[in-house]
Amino acid sequence: LIMVTFLGTGYWFFWSIFILSLARILTAYSSLLLLLGFLLLWERIELYLHLCHKILILLVILLCVILMFIICKFWKERWLVAGLSMQIFAPYVHLVSITVMVILFWPVAFYVARLEREVRMRRYRMTHSEKKRLKKCNVITRLRGLQVPVGLPFLLILLSLYLMPLGIYSPCIQEKENLGPKPTIFGHRGAPMLGPENTMMSFEKAVEHGAHGLETDIHLSYDHVPFLMHDFDLKRTTNIGEVQPESAFENPAFFNWDFLSTLNAGKWFVKPELRPFYNMKPLSEADKERARNQSIPTLKERKFVIFDLHRPPPKHPLRHTFVRQVVSVILASKIEQHLIFWLPAHDRQYVRSVAPGFQHVGRLVSVETLAKNNISIINVDYKKLFPNGLRDYKAANIHINVYTVNAPWLFSLAWCSRINSVTTDNIGLLSQLDHPHFFMTPKFYVFMWLLADIISVLFIVAIFCFHWRRETEKEKLFETSSTRTDLHIAMKPPVRVVESPWTLAALYPALPKSGKEHQGHFNFAAPSKKLLPIKNAVTPLKPGKHEIQPPMPTTVFELTQAPTRQATSEATFQTTLPTLKVDKPTMPSIEVPYP
Questions:
Q1: pLDDT tens digits for 187-245?
Q2: C-alpha atoms less than 13 angstroms from C-alpha of 293 in its C-beta half-sphere
Q3: Are both 304 and 399 inside the same structural domain?
Q4: Distance CA 136, CA 119 (A)
Q5: Helices 16-42, 2-9: inter-axial angle, 10-degree rounding
Q6: Of all residues in the chain, what percent are helix, strand and coil, respectively (each to 5)?
Q7: Is the domain of 210 the same as that of 97?
Q8: Quick one: a GO cellular component term (predicted)?
Q9: pTM higher than the cut 0.90
């Protein structure tokens, strides 16, 4: 995100750190929501997301799609760096991946062991419910099926990681005696992290930090003076926006040297928002003052120099003779010819004839083409060189210079690959390296490989045994409690069911034998106007202190139609029951409507 902002605007914004941190938090939170949603759907639990969560996930997905589109469009070659980095980080990725798999095995083992316990418990229950065996058998099959997609992929990935070193190739895994010398360093436009690029301060800083040579870009002014400039306009590295703003985007080749020499080429470098590299170290006050007084230089450096000569634009007077003009200026400056690495392919035969001491540098072409043109040095982009291999160039004894190498891991990769020289912006850091990073011998790596595999296996077995034992103890506890419950139920006497005193079932003991035969078939005719309550309902019998009074017949309700055999039996049944009175009834009378 920070680099996209810089590429689009040309400015570094300090709040980009805040945006980057916020983007990381939102991405992590959204990823967690997606993971939880996937797990809930896996368990067939309906997913409910708050509206804010839905909006958040959509925004994060949209932001990721936009950024990926920008990166893929403007940084196509950057994807090669990811594959290239595996050549040096693969051994460490292997060790880290095994560690992550051991950590992930904890929930996997827990889930598999729990599913196994669930299967066994369901089988145990099936012995008590044979009628539902068929239905529960399908559930058990499903539980068994869940163990396969959870455990099998994990085991396959783990096995592939254990065998991963067999397919790993890293140039930094070699014997110490086979390690080549440290690559020589060319300062890319000088030392652009220590001073304004393509200025005398930048070149001097590069020389101070042990640069073997310099790489620079040459333009020709309108009055035939070669000067050092990389961009095709003056806006970024000069103060032309203050002096002549309307000409800020014009090609510098259309200006005379008298005007170009008056421009300041260092004030922009000390402005925090315009610094060219985000990880630059802060400048001292002396360096800041020195940078503010820099101007555009001409050719006069006495070091190895790689010249990247830019052809003047159309309508320039030296459009077709720019090579000859630059060569004549170099020869007139008394620079030793063997210090010049000549990169332009235009008019190469003329250069060979007038300056036979120049060292001609080629591009990434076949070995046959290089031999045909009598070129023994190539200057290539590292992103294009490493995927194509180095064997052919090494076999032909070709001197290889790669650009632009700024990261220590990339410099270590070039060192282990026996690259002859590199061009870098970060000369202050790379010049301090005295040994390649991530270097190890084959025996040491094999030892680390076997040690990591053995330790991981021990941890995985321990984790699995822990979860399996815990789930087995839960299963045994469940079986023990189920057995005790069954024995308790078998030994317990039958429980007498006490019916409610105001139901007909409570009156069964008082019914004659003939009445029980017709229980549940009484047909009472409902009254025509109003339902009459049953008063003085039967209460539970309890011995009293005094003797029981004689029974008093009572009429509970009136029939509204001719009595039938059932009605007559009901009336007889109701009138034959006594109304028992005790001193202290245990339950008050309750009015119950007719059924």
A1: 999 999 999 999 999 999 999 999 999 998 999 999 999 999 999 999 999 999 899 99
A2: 6
A3: yes
A4: 10
A5: 130
A6: 50, 10, 40
A7: no
A8: membrane
A9: no
Give the pair of three-digit tokens for residue 339: 């210090």
Q: What CATH number is given to the structural domain containing 274?
A: 3.20.20.190
Q: List pLDDT tens digits, range 251-280.
A: 999 999 999 999 999 999 998 877 888 778
> Considering its fold, how many domains does the chain have in total?
2
Contacts of 541 (CB under 8 A, 6+ apart): 580
Distance CA 390, CA 384 (A): 11
CB-based contact 163:97 (threshold 8 Å): no
User: Would you tell me how many other CB atoms lie within 10 Å of the CB of residue 493?
Assistant: 5
3-state secondary structure of 219: strand
What span, in angstroms and rounded, lies between the C-alpha atoms of 340 and 309? 12
Query: In which domain, by residue range, is 167 found?
Result: 83-178+439-483
Q: How many CB atoms lie within 10 A of CB 580?
A: 17
- Which one-letter amino acid corresponds to residue 550? P
Residues 338 and 205 in one domain: yes
Q: Are the C-beta atoms of 298 and 226 separated by less than 8 Å?
A: yes
Taking 60 as the threshold, does the pLDDT of residue 386 lie above it?
Answer: yes
The radius of gyration of the chain from alpha carbons, rounded to an integer in Å, stands at: 47
CB 470 within 8 A of CB 106: no
User: Is 534 a member of any domain?
Assistant: no
DSSP string covering 185-204: EEEETS-TTTS-TTSHHHHH
Altogether, the residues listed in the chain come to a count of 595
Q: Are 389 and 152 in contact (CB under 8 A)?
A: no
pLDDT of 540 higher than 90: no
The answer on 362 and 259 residing in a single domain is yes
Q: Distance (Å, rounded) from C-alpha 199 to C-alpha 293?
A: 10
| Three-class HEC string of 342-372 | ECCCCCHHHHHHHCCCCEEEECCCCHHHHHH
- Out of 158-167, 254-263, 426-435, 577-586, which region has the weakest mean confidence (pLDDT)? 577-586
Q: Cα torsion for 298, 303, 304, 306, to the nearest 10°?
A: -20
Backbone phi, then psi, for 390, in 5-degree steps? -120, -5
Written as one letter, the residue type at 257 is W
Residue appearing with tokens 């440290």: 182
Instruction: Kindly tell me the sign of the dihedral angle through the C-alpha atoms of 65, 66, 68, 72.
Output: positive
